[in-house]
Amino acid sequence: MPKMKTNRGAAKRFKLKKNAIKRGSAFKSHILTKKSPKRKAHLNASKYVHSSNVDSVKNLLCMA
To answer: Do 19 and 64 contact (CB within 8 A), yes or no?
Structure first.
């Protein structure tokens, strides 16, 4: 049986932490002039994958 391969796109987007899976935010790469500083600061804050999506992300990362 061949080895399981990690989805490389998912590996770049998600970091596995002790109790959760960390993720980044969308909407912060371009057209930043019209966004308020408060909104941009909130987009920089780390977020976590929702509990309903944890199983599918773990499957992409070959953790299931």
So the answer is: no
